Amino acid sequence: MSAEDGERNEASTVEALSAPAIRGGLGPEAARLFRVYRTISNMLEKRGYMVPKDLRELTPNLFREKFGENPSRDNLTILVEKADDETNQLFVFFPEDEKVGVKPIKTITDRMKKDNVSNAIMILRVNITPFAKLALQEMSDQFRIEHFKEAELLVDITKHQLVPEHQVLTPNEKSALLKRYRLKDNQLPRIQPNDPIARYYGMKRGNVVKIIRPSETAGRYVTYRVCM
Predict the structure, then answer these.
(1) Which residues are within 8 A (CB) of 199 and not within 5 positions of it... i.e. 6 or more apart?
(2) Is 89 found in the same domain as 196?
(3) Residue limits of the RNA polymerase Rpb5 N-terminal domain (predicted)?
(4) What tens digit of pLDDT does each residue of 36-58 get?
(5) pLDDT tens figures, 129-176
(6) How far is 165 from 167, CA to CA, in rounded Å?
(7) DSSP-based three-state secondary structure for 149
(8) Residue (of 85, 65, 66, 61) closest to 77 by Cα position
(9) Which pLDDT belongs to residue 14?
């Protein structure tokens, strides 16, 4: 998807957010948060987390009933666990600050320590300060805290018609793949950690993703990329 396509999509999203019929009766700010919440729910499910039914089937009306006309970002906090490992949990936080600094990071990590959770995603209203980024790097051995801007989650990129299906391999699946083709990690094509798809799936360095594209001749065409 090109930058020009991205600009067109963002413009059409802004236009959609201003249309009351499409917002389902939500105000512009609540409608924006609803779209972000829906994308996050899809993202968590595709990462293998158990997403409650009420989040998976959320509608604008249900969102308003659950969070009100002017949702408090603190009330939007999500806690999920992996389907195959209930000890592998992840928080999603929605800090109030337009530009998240060190203080909100401290509040978040205190909550994570209290609940013994080491993974989290922060949804930023606008951005994060350089000092906060540095703080996240310094605590990366203890906590993994990803961050996305709200604007990045207004549309679910995996639902775009030009984006093929992606499946992140388990460690066992990766080992079997490398053994089958007698390959090493660095012999696979690469995907950067900051690639939008790699970020969507929470890929770490060394993870391998299977990419499935439709093919007119073979039915489907499968490739693999390693996150490096």
Answers:
(1) 146, 148, 193
(2) no
(3) 29-112
(4) 999 999 999 999 999 999 999 99
(5) 999 999 999 999 999 999 999 999 999 999 999 999 999 999 999 999
(6) 7
(7) strand
(8) 66
(9) 47
Q: How many folded domains does the chain comprise?
A: 2
70/56 Cα distance (integer angstroms): 21
Enumerate residues 6+ apart whose C-beta is below 8 A from 79. Answer: 89, 90, 91, 92, 115, 117
Domain-located, residue 3: no
Cα–Cα dist 27/114, whole Å: 35
Q: How many CB atoms lie within 10 A of CB 39?
A: 22
Q: Determine contact, residues 112/91, Cβ cutoff 8 Å.
A: yes
Amino acid at 61: N
Radius of gyration in angstroms for the set of CA atoms belonging to the chain, rounded to a whole number:
19
Q: What is the C-alpha to C-alpha distance for residues 11 and 173, in angstroms, rounded to an integer? A: 40
State the amino acid at position 201 in one-letter form.
Y
Question: Is residue 80 a contact partner of residue 89, using CB atoms and an 8 Å limit?
Answer: yes
One domain for residues 132 and 173: no
> Which of 152, 177, 198 corresponds to the end of one domain?
152
Instruction: Give residue 210's domain range.
Output: 157-227
Nearest to 127 by CA among 149, 107, 112: 149
- In whole angstroms, give the CA distance from residue 37 to residue 150: 10
Tokens of 45: 């499910």
Q: What is the pLDDT of residue 106?
A: 96
Do 36 and 146 lie in one domain? The reply is yes
- In the block, tokens 């779209």 appear at 35
